[in-house]
Design brief:
Length: 161
């Protein structure tokens, strides 16, 4: 049975893919990731393909092996700092890398994951949320009396079955 890659158009036999250890592991890893990130990951990996040849199964497996631990951990380490990297960050970063390629801002084939990790490190979702200051506690003598609704609800609790 022949299969066609939706990203690069390469054709291959399903039997050959299953028989090849790294191809089988790559397919299994992609199947286990699932969701919107899978397509972005496959397209991203295609950016490592040399212009005059195909991306080998061994290279694809190696590239995925570098990313999967960070994807599963939900965080990355970049320039000595740890940055949260939930699925939304990976999906966003894959799309940004592909957009940069399409606009001509990114030269391919890629050599490392550095650009991807820079995008994740700068992801808007990593911006710390400012804490909302707590309202100052009122002194006990100035606290308002509880409302009659709250008092009635508390009294009704006694009659629950």
């Amino acid at each position: 049975m022949k299969t066609r890659c939706p990203c690069c158009g390469a054709e291959n036999s399903l039997d050959a893919l299953i028989a090849h250890e790294q191809a089988r592991q790559s397919m299994w890893t992609l199947a286990n990731i699932g969701g919107p990130m899978t397509q972005g990951l496959v397209q991203y990996l295609g950016l490592f393909r040399p212009s005059k040849s195909s991306l080998s199964q061994a290279r694809m497996y190696s590239l995925m092996s570098e990313l999967i631990p960070d994807i599963r951990a939900g965080e990355i380490r970049r320039n000595g700092q740890v940055h949260p990297a939930p699925v939304a960050a990976w999906t966003y970063a894959f799309n940004e890398v592909l957009t940069a390629r399409d606009s001509g801002r990114l030269k391919t084939p890629l050599k490392s994951h550095g650009y991807l990790y820079e995008i994740i490190a700068g992801w808007v979702g990593n911006t710390p949320v400012e804490a909302v200051p707590a309202a100052p506690a009122q002194p006990a003598q100035q606290q308002a009396a509880p409302s009659s609704t709250i008092q009635a609800a508390a009294a009704g609790e006694k009659f629950k079955r």
